[in-house]
Automatic annotation (TrEMBL):
<feature type="domain" description="Aminotransferase class I/classII large">
    <location>
        <begin position="32"/>
        <end position="357"/>
    </location>
</feature>
<dbReference type="GO" id="GO:0030170">
    <property type="term" value="F:pyridoxal phosphate binding"/>
</dbReference>
<keyword id="KW-0032">Aminotransferase</keyword>
<dbReference type="Pfam" id="PF00155">
    <property type="entry name" value="Aminotran_1_2"/>
</dbReference>
<comment type="similarity">
    <text>Belongs to the class-II pyridoxal-phosphate-dependent aminotransferase family. Histidinol-phosphate aminotransferase subfamily.</text>
</comment>
<feature type="modified residue" description="N6-(pyridoxal phosphate)lysine">
    <location>
        <position position="224"/>
    </location>
</feature>
<keyword id="KW-0028">Amino-acid biosynthesis</keyword>
<keyword id="KW-0368">Histidine biosynthesis</keyword>
<comment type="subunit">
    <text>Homodimer.</text>
</comment>
<protein>
    <recommendedName>
        <fullName>Histidinol-phosphate aminotransferase</fullName>
        <ecNumber>2.6.1.9</ecNumber>
    </recommendedName>
</protein>
<dbReference type="InterPro" id="IPR050106">
    <property type="entry name" value="HistidinolP_aminotransfase"/>
</dbReference>
<comment type="pathway">
    <text>Amino-acid biosynthesis; L-histidine biosynthesis; L-histidine from 5-phospho-alpha-D-ribose 1-diphosphate: step 7/9.</text>
</comment>
<keyword id="KW-0808">Transferase</keyword>
<dbReference type="InterPro" id="IPR004839">
    <property type="entry name" value="Aminotransferase_I/II_large"/>
</dbReference>
<dbReference type="InterPro" id="IPR015421">
    <property type="entry name" value="PyrdxlP-dep_Trfase_major"/>
</dbReference>
<dbReference type="InterPro" id="IPR015424">
    <property type="entry name" value="PyrdxlP-dep_Trfase"/>
</dbReference>
<dbReference type="InterPro" id="IPR015422">
    <property type="entry name" value="PyrdxlP-dep_Trfase_small"/>
</dbReference>
Length: 363
């Protein structure tokens, strides 16, 4: 039969959360709360909706393959040059482009033991070698150990801040110490998918450090706080030479006209972002209160989700939640079989979760 490359044969596909409609059909439930994919419970800015109505007149034309207008807007937003931006089909795609352009067989890529699933997937698909660094206590990235893992084969280091699925965070001074310890020939990919949600006394904004570090790549997304997950659009900030290499391996029309227009409209509505951040802060406090009520251990949460310890019963709890129409994320694939990741939701969705937990945990 037909066989793929050996590194592809061994891959386990990314497991997305079940779509709401599928669970409704499967279980005959009408009340379904999806708290599994770190989406924005407020949806998207109303300005995005009007931008999309306009875009529907222009379906027959190819999108702007260079995302010219969006890149100019992003450049102004971050005070960088447009040549420093690469736009992708979700930040997922730009993360993959980095691997495709910089790592292959014989090369090493460093990431944390509980890092976002796309780093190991892209690394292995490229035939490169993943170097997994154990987390420090509390499931945080161990930046000292990651810097110490660099060999002369290392091409890339992936950091997620906050990390998914652990929600953990490192501050600017810790990051700058790390950058000083990493040789300049190694690219450091700082994934800031949840950047906007973070409140921290030493908050790290990678987009402002590109003039200091030539080997820094920062990724951002419109899927989380901007609420555009279904449109698939994200981007990367890096020195122009790096962006140029990535554009060489990028598919010419990788983002749609709809996604580009929506992203510009979303960027223009920073008041919506602020509302979403405030909403998330309250929702997270409420989720934490629910976990506390059931005496469940949680990890410090800096994004829009809470990582909760359910012990050996975690898988059974997940199945029981599904039966009641509550979709959360099991973390066995992340080496955290005793934990579930719960995204913030509307008050109704979170009440649904709390009620379901009450019947499952009998407290
Ligand atoms: N990075 C992290 C840390 C994430 O959690 C996610 C989404 N789960 C992504 C990147 C990719 O998101 P998107 O492709 O929608 O931008």
């Amino acid at each position: 039969g037909i066989r793929p490359l050996p590194q592809v044969e061994q891959l386990i596909p990314y497991q997305p959360g079940k779509p709401i409609e599928e669970l409704q059909r499967e279980l005959g439930l009408t009340r379904v709360s999806k708290l599994a994919s770190n989406e924005n419970p407020l949806g998207a800015s109303p300005q995005v909706i009007s931008a999309l109505e306009k875009a529907s007149q222009e379906i027959a034309r190819y999108p702007d393959g260079s995302a010219y207008a969006l890149k100019r807007r992003l450049a102004a937003f971050h005070s960088v040059e447009p040549e420093m931006i690469v736009v992708g089909n979700g930040s997922n795609e730009v993360l993959e482009l980095v691997v495709r352009a910089f790592a292959g067989p014989g090369d090493e890529v460093i990431y944390d033991q509980h890092a976002f699933a796309v780093y190991p997937l892209s690394t292995r698909a490229a035939g490169a070698t993943g170097v997994v660094v154990p987390s420090s206590e509390g499931f945080a990235h161990d930046l000292d150990a990651m810097a110490a893992a660099v060999t002369n084969r290392t091409r890339l280091i992936f950091l997620a801040n906050p990390n998914n699925p652990t929600g953990t965070y490192f501050g600017r001074s810790e990051f700058e110490r790390f950058m000083q310890a990493v040789p300049e020939r190694v690219l450091v990919v700082l994934d800031e998918a949840y950047f906007e949600f973070v409140s921290h006394s030493d908050k790290l904004d990678g987009s402002q450090l590109l003039d200091r570090y030539a080997n820094l790549v920062v990724t951002r997304t419109f899927s989380k706080v901007y609420g555009l997950a279904s449109l698939r659009i994200g981007y990367l900030l890096a020195r122009p030479e790096i962006a140029d290499y990535l554009n060489r391996v990028r598919e010419p029309f990788n983002t749609s006209h709809f996604a580009q227009l929506a992203a510009m409209a979303a960027l223009d509505d920073q008041a919506f972002v602020q509302r979403s951040v405030a909403y998330n802060r309250e929702a997270l406090a409420e989720l934490k209160a629910t976990a506390d009520r059931f005496a469940l251990e949680t990890l410090p949460a800096y994004g829009n989700f809470l990582t909760v310890h359910f012990g050996p019963e975690a898988n059974a709890v997940n199945n029981a939640l599904l039966k009641q129409g509550v979709i959360v994320r099991p973390l066995a694939g992340y080496g955290m079989a005793q934990w579930l990741r719960i995204s913030t939701g509307t008050p109704e969705e979170q009440a649904h979760l709390a009620e379901a937990l009450e019947t499952i945990l009998h407290v």
